[in-house]
Amino acid sequence: MKETEASYSFLKRMAWEAGLRKSNLIMPLIVDESRSNSRYLITTSMDSLENKVQKVIDLGIKKIMLYGIPKTRNAKASEAWNPKGVVQSAVARIKKNFGHKVEVSTDICVCQYNLSGHCGTMNSAGTDIDNDTSLIGIKTIALSHAEAGSDILAPSSMMDGQVSCIRNCLKENGFRNISIMSFAAKYDSCLYSPFRSTAFDNYNQTIKINKSTYQLSCSNIRQSLNEIQMDLNEGAKIIMVKPGIVSSDLIVAIKNRFNCPLAVQNVSGEYLMIKLASEKGLINEVEWALAYLIGMRRAGADMIMSYHVELISKYLE
After folding, report:
1. 50: nearest Cα among 26, 69, 29
2. Distance of CA 91 to the CA centre of its chain
C-alpha cells in the first residue's frame, strides 16, 4: 500500500505526539556465522557487518543489540564464550570501527549455541535445566562479551540469580561500568518461533521447545513484578520485557512501581505477523508498526527493540 503525502505527515505527527523518537529505538542485529540465508528474519554476515552498522547509524539509530548464530554448536554451548566467537568478534569489530558512535548491547544466552535449544544447561539425565550449572556458563559468556567491548550485557536466559552472578563476575574482573539489561519478564510464547527457526536453520532440530519451567506465564503479573524486583536488587540497571503485545499492562505497572529504565521487545513473531499481513495487502505495514511502537511508548517504555526499526525510522525525529 502506498502512502500519500498527507498520510506521511499524519504518521510523523502521531509519532511525535506520543513521544516516540529515534533515541528510543534499539536495532536488533543477528550476526550469522553459518550463512544460513534465513527464510524468516534478515541476518547479517560478518563480512557485511560494518556496512550494516553504518547504515543503522546513518538512519539516526544509536543503539543496537547483537545476537549470534555460530557456525558450529555442541551440547556444552562452548562457542557462546569463545573469545573469537561470533558475538565477541562482532563487538570487537564494531567498537574498532565505530567507537562510541553506537551503543552495543549483547544477548547472553546459550540457546543458539547448544543442541537442546534451551536457554540453560540440561542436567545429566537430560530431563530438566540445571540452574547452578547454567549460571557458570552465563557468567563466562558475560565476561567474554565485556572483554570484547560490549557496553551493555543483556542476559535473556531467565535463570535464577543470573544478574547477581554477572555483576559479581564483572566486579571481580574490573568491569565496573558495564550496565546489565535484564530480560526479567520474558514470557513463554510461541511468538519467538521465527527467531528459533532462524537460529536452527542449519540443524535438523525441532523448534517446539517447552520453556515454561523457567520463562514466565503471561497470566501472572505479580510473579513478573517479583522477578523484576529481584533483578533490580541484584544490580540490573535496565529491565527488558518481551513480547510487547501481551505486556502493556505490565509496562504501566513497572513504571508506576519501579524507578528504572524500561525496554520492550517487539519480537520476531509479532514482526512477521505484520509483515506477512501487509504482503497480502490486508494492512498498511508502516502504520501498524508505528501504532504498535507508539502504544509501547505511550504505556511507558523508554526503549523499544524491533525488527521494524529500519522501516519506521524515517517517520521519527
Report:
1. 29
2. 15
23-245: CATH superfamily: Aldolase class I (3.20.20.70)
231: helix, coil or strand? helix
Q: At what angle do helices 131-148 and 162-172 cross, to 10 degrees?
A: 40
Enzyme catalytic residues = 186, 242
Phi, psi of 269 (to 5 degrees): -65, -40
Kind plus residue range of the DSSP H or E element containing 84: none
Measured in whole angstroms, the distance separating CA 253 from the mean position of its chain's CA atoms is 21
Q: Is 95 left (phi over 0), alpha (psi -120 to 50) or beta?
A: alpha
Is-contact 309 20, C-beta < 8 A?
no
Contacts of 243 (CB under 8 A, 6+ apart): 187, 189, 191, 192, 265, 266, 267, 269, 270
Tell me the whole-structure pTM to 2 decimals. 0.93
Mean pLDDT of 187-208: 77
Backbone phi, then psi, for 316, in 5-degree steps?
A: -115, 150
Every domain of the chain and the residues it spans = 23-245
> How many whole angstroms separate alpha carbon 205 and alpha carbon 236?
33
- Return the pLDDT at 196: 87
Q: Which of these ranges, 30-39, 89-98, 109-118, has the smallest mean pLDDT? A: 30-39
